[in-house]
């Protein structure tokens, strides 16, 4: 192969590295189980994200892992470790000094002992009182100096992560450089607060002092966020101590900063960080996104000020991450979840799981299964067809499991036995094409054809075979949407049944017509896409009168079809339309409601419409009313187990179209 030439072909080196970790169709199938149980597409998608896909963790698994990390972080130790260490060093230094003074019989030694006896119980005041003390014991002086070193390192580490390790064996020049860094940082933050362009100043700052920031921030915003979060954690640490501990530790920190000449600069920095991130919790218990409150540290091991601050900072991040994974706050989005925080808490594999979850919604939209309309999530007709097929397959599996001998329908449902005759094709014909006569017509029209010359078909050449076919049926399925359906657990079954029936008619009996009408306080026709995304309605009222009225109008469009109305309900009529078109509700039902509903039954009966009712409850009032409907109309009343509703409705539809006629 010459230089610069390339050959392209299918990938054969194992799994496609660019392939999606899941199929959108598989994700939709996972969602369909929730949708067929009555949930909306958004609720189904959220359930899928919580549960995860095969081989990928969902949000719930991640939250459980985060909760385990929170328990580990909380049990890491106590927050008063620095105070405890200062007391220990102070007691040690005083004890070493007393040991040096004891053999000395002089009055000076006794005066020194009296000075030690008079030390305040507060360790901060005691440390300050001993600042000018002339130590007799070199060991005591060395121990006391460890207190100052400890406080400087811990206080700076509580503000700047990793400073405690960096300051081991620090020289005066090192502390001078820290003072310069904090001063430059304050100047930078103040310039940013004034709205100045600080990009060049930030780059210069990081080139000089970047070794102080292990977080390696790439912008001033990242730097401020890291510093503010740690400062807020330090503030929460103080707030979590007892009042006495808080006072003692604050005094010790203040003394350490004064010794370093940093008190004023640290105060400026604290004010700037609070102003830049007022949304953080700067006192009290740790607060995560959505208002969740986290607990403090509960372990037995004493932690230094820096380590305790790190633990509280980690707890705050875990709280925020848990809340973001919970997605239970206004405007929640998977984009709110910080992949870096996930990686720190759960490892890189969890980031891959998160990206897979974030990709699900995009893939469903890109592959034409969901769409957004006015900010809400809707299923597309393509998705509804797939969900309807799943509902229909589930019903046929139930029928088969009951041993009734039914099976899936795979033919077109439009044609019966061939009659041996044909006729010209007309728009709307569903009969099979007579291929022989169609080709013959094309040849006769075009004249003799030579070898290799193609036969070109035109519309007028087509003929269809005349067949015996079933009577065309026009079906209106009336589905109760009232909240009682959800309370009884039957709404999902009714929704699944309606989708299955619509799919059966659309795919197996395309010459038939089906309309789905939902009714609660009022009725309306439902498109399949709308039905799939519908939830039960939290309103009072079962307006069967309005539903029958709409069914009558729709059936009048098909005068040659076999008209059938199927009603799925769990309650008697409790609402009707007033003259101005508004619904009127009453419980118990008003006589007027029952009379107007039965009047619609009579009107449909006179037009030859069969009304079959599927009762999902055996309440006496409902039974009495439905039996009166059947007496007037002649239709059937069925009271199936709700789980068998789908098979009952499908059987009833097939039964209703049992007659045959010749399709000419």
UniProtKB/TrEMBL annotation:
Q: Locate the VWFA domain: which residues?
A: 472-650
Region spans: Disordered? 1-20
Under CDD domains, the record lists: vWFA (cd00198)
Which SUPFAM superfamilies does the record associate with it?
vWA-like
Q: Which InterPro entries match?
A: VWF_A, vWFA_dom_sf
- Pfam families (UniProt xref): VWA_2
Please give the name of this protein: Uncharacterized protein with a von Willebrand factor type A (VWA) domain
Name its species: Frankia torreyi
């Amino acid at each position: 192969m010459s230089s610069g030439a390339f050959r392209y072909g299918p990938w054969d080196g194992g799994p496609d590295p660019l392939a999606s970790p899941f199929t959108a169709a598989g994700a939709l199938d996972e969602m369909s189980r929730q949708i067929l149980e009555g949930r909306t597409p958004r609720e189904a998608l959220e359930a899928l994200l919580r549960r995860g896909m095969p081989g990928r963790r969902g949000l719930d698994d991640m939250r459980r892992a985060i909760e385990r990390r929170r328990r580990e972080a909380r049990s890491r130790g106590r927050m008063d470790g620095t105070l405890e260490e200062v007391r220990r060093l102070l007691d040690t230094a005083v004890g070493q000094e007393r040991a040096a003074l004891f053999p000395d019989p002089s009055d000076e030694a006794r005066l020194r002992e009296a000075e030690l006896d008079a030390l305040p119980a507060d360790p901060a005041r005691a440390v300050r009182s001993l600042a000018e003390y002339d130590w007799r014991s070199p060991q005591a002086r060395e121990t006391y100096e460890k207190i100052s070193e400890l406080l400087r390192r811990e206080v700076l580490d509580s503000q700047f992560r990793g400073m405690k390790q960096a300051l081991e064996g620090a020289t005066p020049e090192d502390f001078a450089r820290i003072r310069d860094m904090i001063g430059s940082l304050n100047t930078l933050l103040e310039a940013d607060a004034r709205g100045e362009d600080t990009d060049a100043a930030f780059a210069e700052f990081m080139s000089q002092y970047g070794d102080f920031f292990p977080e390696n921030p790439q912008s001033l915003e990242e730097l401020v966020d890291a510093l503010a979060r740690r400062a807020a954690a330090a503030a929460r640490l103080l707030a979590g101590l007892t009042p006495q501990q808080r006072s003692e530790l604050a005094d010790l920190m203040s003394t350490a900063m004064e010794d370093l000449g940093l008190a004023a600069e640290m105060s400026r920095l604290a004010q700037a960080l609070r102003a830049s991130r007022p949304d953080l919790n700067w006192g009290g218990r740790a607060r995560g996104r959505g208002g969740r409150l986290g607990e403090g540290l509960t372990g037995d091991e004493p932690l230094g000020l820096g380590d305790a601050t790190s633990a509280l900072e980690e707890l705050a991040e875990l709280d925020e991450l848990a809340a973001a994974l919970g997605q239970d706050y206004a405007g929640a989005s998977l984009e709110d979840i910080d992949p870096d925080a996930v990686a720190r808490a759960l490892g890189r594999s969890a980031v891959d799981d998160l990206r897979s979850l974030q990709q699900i919604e995009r893939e469903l939209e890109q592959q034409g299964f969901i769409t957004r309309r006015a900010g809400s999530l809707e299923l597309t007709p393509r998705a509804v067809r797939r969900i309807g097929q799943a509902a229909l397959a589930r019903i046929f599996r139930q029928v088969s499991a009951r041993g009734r001998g039914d099976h899936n329908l795979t033919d077109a449902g439009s044609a019966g036995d061939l009659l041996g005759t044909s006729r010209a094709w007309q728009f709307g014909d569903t009969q099979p094409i007579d291929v022989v006569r169609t080709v013959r017509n094309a040849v006769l029209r075009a004249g003799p054809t030579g070898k290799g010359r193609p036969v070109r078909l035109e519309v007028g050449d087509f003929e269809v075979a005349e067949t015996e076919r079933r009577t065309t049926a026009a079906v209106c399925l009336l589905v109760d949407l009232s909240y009682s359906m959800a309370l009884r657990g039957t709404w999902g079954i009714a929704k699944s049944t309606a989708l299955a029936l619509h799919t059966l008619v659309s795919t197996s009996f395309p010459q038939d017509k089906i309309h789905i009408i939902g009714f609660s306080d009022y009725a309306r026709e439902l498109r399949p896409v709308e039905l799939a995304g519908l939830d039960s309605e939290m309103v009072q009222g079962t307006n069967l009168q309005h539903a029958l009225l709409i069914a009558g109008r729709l059936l009048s469009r098909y005068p040659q079809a076999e008209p059938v109305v199927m009603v799925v309900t769990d309650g008697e009529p409790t609402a009707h339309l007033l003259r101005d078109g508004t619904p009127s509700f009453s419980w118990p039902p008003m006589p007027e409601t029952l009379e107007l509903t039965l009047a619609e039954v009579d009107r449909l009966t006179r037009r030859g419409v069969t009304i079959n009712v599927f009762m999902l409850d055996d309440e006496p009032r409902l039974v009495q009313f439905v039996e009166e409907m059947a007496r007037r109309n002649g239709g059937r009343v069925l009271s199936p187990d709700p789980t068998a509703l789908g098979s009952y409705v499908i059987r009833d539809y097939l039964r209703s179209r049992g007659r045959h006629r010749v399709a000419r």
